[in-house]
Specification:
Blueprint lengths: L6 H7 L8 H10 L6 H8 L3 H12 L12 H8 L1 H17 L9 H21 L5 H9 L3 H9 L1 H14 L3 H9 L3 H11 L4 H8 L11 H16 L15 H7 L6 H20 L10
Helix pairs in contact: 1-12, 2-3, 2-6, 3-5, 4-5, 4-6, 6-8, 7-8, 7-14, 7-16, 8-13, 9-10, 9-12, 10-11, 12-13, 13-14, 14-15
C-alpha cells in the first residue's frame, strides 16, 4: 500500500482509530440534548474510571475554590461546567486512544510527558494573558503534536527516515517532515481536528503552533501553544521526537503581554505536576465514583 500523500490522507488512512472516541461522542450527545441533566451526563461519565477520576480531581482543585469536597460526578459537573467537561472528556479519551499505538519510533511515555507539560504551561499562560477558556488552552497544548502519532502509525517507514535524518543532522523534525514527506504533523493534527468538527481555535492552534505568524485568526490561542511548546522543550521533560528547541517567535511574547519574571515559578509548578496529570489521563483501573 502506498503511503499517504497529504495530511488529509493520513487521517483517512487511520480509519476507525481516527474517529472521535466513542465515549466522548456519547457524552456530547447527552450534553447537546436540551432534555439532559447533570445526572444524565454523570451516568455516561461514570462508565469510564479514568474520566471520572480526572473530573473529580479537577472539581476539587483549588482552581474552583470550593469550600467543601466534591464526592459525586453530578456535583463535579455543576462545579466545572459543561464547556470544561467537554475539554476534560476529549483530552482524556484521545490520550488513552493514541497511547495504545506501537512505540518503536518514539517512546509514548516520553511523548505524553512533553505533551502534558505543554498543556499545563498553555493553561497557565492563557491565565496570565487573560485569555478565556483556559482548559481549551490545555487541550491545545496537550494534543499539539497528535499528528505525529498518526504519521508514525500510517507511514512508519517514511516517518522513521525523517526522524533519523532530523536526529543525525540536528535539523528541526518539523522542517524535515515538510521537506521529505511533503506535509507536517501540525497539518495532520489540524486535519484530524477538522474531521472531528472541533472549534477553529483548536484547529488553528495545532496547525500554526510552529509558525504563529501565518495564523490569520485565533492568534492568541496559537501564540499560547507556540510559547508553551517552546518552553516545554527548553526544560527537557519528555520528548515528542524533536531534537531541537523550536525557535520562539518574538511577536507571540508581545501579543500575550507576558512578564518574564513570572516564568521561573510557572515552569517549576508545571514540571512538578506533569506525572500526576499524566497518570490521571491514562489510568483505567480506579473504580468509578457514584454518579448521584
Amino acid at each position: 500500500m502506498n503511503p499517504p500523500r497529504t495530511a488529509r490522507e493520513v487521517v483517512d488512512s487511520m480509519g476507525q482509530l481516527a474517529t472521535m472516541p466513542e465515549l466522548h461522542l456519547k457524552l456530547l450527545t447527552v450534553i447537546n440534548s436540551p432534555m439532559s441533566s447533570a445526572m444524565d451526563m454523570a451516568r455516561v461519565i461514570s462508565r469510564d474510571p479514568s474520566l471520572t477520576a480526572r473530573l473529580l480531581k479537577q472539581s476539587n482543585s483549588a482552581y474552583y475554590g470550593q469550600g467543601s469536597s466534591v464526592a459525586t460526578v453530578s456535583k463535579a459537573i455543576t462545579v466545572v461546567g459543561v464547556h470544561q467537561l467537554r475539554e476534560i472528556s476529549l483530552s482524556t479519551s484521545v490520550v488513552r486512544m493514541f497511547n495504545r499505538l506501537p512505540q518503536d519510533l518514539i517512546v509514548m511515555d516520553e511523548f505524553w510527558k512533553h505533551s502534558v507539560l505543554t498543556g499545563l504551561l498553555a493553561r497557565e499562560l492563557a491565565t496570565m494573558a487573560e485569555i478565556p477558556d483556559v482548559e481549551h488552552a490545555f487541550v491545545g497544548g496537550l494534543l499539539h503534536d497528535i499528528g505525529r502519532v498518526l504519521m508514525m502509525a500510517s507511514m512508519p517507514v517514511e516517518f522513521r527516515k525523517a526522524l533519523l535524518f532530523a536526529r543525525a543532522s540536528k535539523h528541526s523534525l518539523n522542517k524535515v517532515e515538510h521537506d521529505q514527506i511533503g506535509f507536517t504533523h501540525a497539518q495532520v493534527g489540524a486535519e484530524l481536528f477538522r474531521s472531528w468538527g472541533l472549534p477553529p481555535s483548536l484547529i488553528d492552534a495545532l496547525e500554526f503552533h510552529h509558525f504563529p505568524e501565518l495564523a490569520s485568526r485565533n492568534k492568541d490561542h496559537v501564540a499560547v501553544i507556540h510559547v508553551a511548546d517552546a518552553l516545554a522543550h527548553c526544560i527537557e521533560v519528555g520528548n515528542s521526537g524533536e531534537s531541537r528547541v523550536p525557535p520562539l517567535q518574538s511577536g507571540t511574547w508581545d501579543l500575550l503581554k507576558l512578564n518574564a519574571e513570572d516564568l521561573p515559578t510557572l515552569l517549576k509548578e508545571a514540571e512538578a505536576n506533569v506525572l500526576d496529570v499524566q497518570r490521571s489521563l491514562m489510568q483505567t483501573e480506579e473504580p468509578a465514583a457514584e454518579s448521584s
